[in-house]
């Protein structure tokens, strides 16, 4: 779907919300609706038109990335667009600060109406262009991990391994890492969002790697846990449990299923094994232009899966002071698993 087609779809939401237009200032939403990737841009979408604004630093980029809209070139882009707005104009109240709203109100005669999440309603279901970018990002992450595991791990620091992974993803064509990589060795693997340190990877450690690639603005997300050397019995048992829970969660990902039911499908496996208190986070989340976006896969979520959503399934069991296991894939809610790296226990 082209940015122009997305703008057409957004107009239908304007009608439903009783709005004459929407002032889009969140840069990710601007990108989604125009293709623009600069650091200063905004869009005023009305029922019968669209006005894109940026500043003179991006005149050339706008001509390439937003060829179908004539840009308004103003340093104060948002204010310049607001000044041209009339009628009931929605603003992204989930992104605009109180001071930002006051600045808008000072320059416009339009009625400013809170309109959080309108663009997010469109972004939650991915089109084929978006899925293709995510597919490529996942493939790059798969290959980077494959290549990394061909080399030594023992004696390297968590930080070195994280940098190595990120370099490999860039070398394979990624624009960068999708987020700050998690590399957690030994007892650190029991910390769900551990930040890599200068801790050395030792023999018989569990090593948890949670990372992703960024491609055309889209973020992949995967986690694999390996054993450096020979696995102990408790590590095998823990891995087998998380593997079974992850398989149950993936099997539950279908259109029309409540995300809390997907969480339950995975969580129930862990609870039945007596490890429920050590699964301390939700099962997963949507991915796209943000690494964490709707829908949420958790016990408290009211979201329902739709075909074309892209989500993660990432159960984990974390034993404080000993180690933890997490296994994560990125899936499309149509039966396709974008993450291709094997999930059997690897002893490296």
From TrEMBL:
<dbReference type="GO" id="GO:0004177">
    <property type="term" value="F:aminopeptidase activity"/>
</dbReference>
<protein>
    <submittedName>
        <fullName>Xaa-Pro aminopeptidase</fullName>
    </submittedName>
</protein>
<dbReference type="Pfam" id="PF01321">
    <property type="entry name" value="Creatinase_N"/>
</dbReference>
<dbReference type="GO" id="GO:0008235">
    <property type="term" value="F:metalloexopeptidase activity"/>
</dbReference>
<dbReference type="InterPro" id="IPR001714">
    <property type="entry name" value="Pept_M24_MAP"/>
</dbReference>
<dbReference type="InterPro" id="IPR050659">
    <property type="entry name" value="Peptidase_M24B"/>
</dbReference>
<dbReference type="InterPro" id="IPR000587">
    <property type="entry name" value="Creatinase_N"/>
</dbReference>
<keyword id="KW-0378">Hydrolase</keyword>
<dbReference type="Pfam" id="PF00557">
    <property type="entry name" value="Peptidase_M24"/>
</dbReference>
<dbReference type="InterPro" id="IPR000994">
    <property type="entry name" value="Pept_M24"/>
</dbReference>
<dbReference type="InterPro" id="IPR036005">
    <property type="entry name" value="Creatinase/aminopeptidase-like"/>
</dbReference>
<keyword id="KW-0031">Aminopeptidase</keyword>
<keyword id="KW-0479">Metal-binding</keyword>
<feature type="domain" description="Peptidase M24">
    <location>
        <begin position="133"/>
        <end position="333"/>
    </location>
</feature>
<feature type="domain" description="Creatinase N-terminal">
    <location>
        <begin position="6"/>
        <end position="125"/>
    </location>
</feature>
<dbReference type="InterPro" id="IPR029149">
    <property type="entry name" value="Creatin/AminoP/Spt16_N"/>
</dbReference>
<dbReference type="GO" id="GO:0046872">
    <property type="term" value="F:metal ion binding"/>
</dbReference>
<keyword id="KW-0645">Protease</keyword>
<dbReference type="InterPro" id="IPR001131">
    <property type="entry name" value="Peptidase_M24B_aminopep-P_CS"/>
</dbReference>
């Amino acid at each position: 779907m082209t940015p122009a087609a997305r703008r057409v779809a957004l107009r239908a939401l304007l009608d439903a919300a009783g709005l004459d237009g929407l002032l889009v200032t969140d840069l990710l939403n601007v990108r989604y609706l125009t293709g623009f990737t600069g650091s200063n841009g905004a869009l005023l979408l009305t029922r019968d038109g669209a006005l894109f604004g940026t500043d003179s630093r991006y005149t050339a980029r706008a001509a390439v990335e937003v060829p179908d809209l004539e840009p308004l070139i103003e340093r104060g882009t948002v204010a310049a667009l607001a000044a041209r707005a009339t009628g009931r104009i929605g603003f992204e109240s989930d992104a605009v600060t109180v001071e930002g709203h006051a600045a808008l109100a000072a320059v416009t005669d339009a009625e400013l109406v809170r309109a959080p999440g309108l663009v997010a309603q469109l972004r939650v279901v991915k089109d084929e262009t978006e899925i293709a970018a995510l597919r490529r990002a996942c493939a790059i992450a798969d290959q980077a991990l494959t290549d990394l595991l061909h080399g030594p791990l023992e004696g390297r620091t968590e930080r070195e391994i994280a940098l190595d992974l990120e370099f490999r993803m860039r070398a394979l064509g990624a624009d960068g890492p999708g987020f700050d990589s998690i590399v957690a060795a030994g007892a650190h693997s029991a910390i769900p969002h551990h930040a890599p340190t200068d801790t050395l990877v030792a023999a018989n450690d569990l090593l948890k790697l949670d990372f992703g690639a960024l491609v055309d603005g889209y973020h992949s997300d995967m986690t694999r846990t390996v054993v450096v050397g020979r696995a102990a019995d408790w590590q095998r048992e823990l891995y087998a449990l998380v593997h079974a829970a992850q398989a149950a969660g993936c099997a539950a990902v279908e259109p029309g299923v409540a995300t809390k039911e997907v969480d339950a499908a995975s969580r129930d496996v862990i609870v039945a094994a007596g490890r429920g208190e050590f699964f301390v986070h939700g099962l997963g989340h949507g991915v796209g232009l943000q690494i964490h976006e709707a829908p949420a896969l958790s016990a408290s979520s009211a979201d329902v899966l739709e075909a074309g959503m892209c989500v993660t399934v990432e159960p984990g069991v974390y034993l404080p002071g000993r180690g933890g296991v997490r296994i994560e894939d990125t899936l499309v809610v149509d039966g396709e698993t974008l993450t291709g790296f094997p999930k059997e226990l690897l002893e490296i």
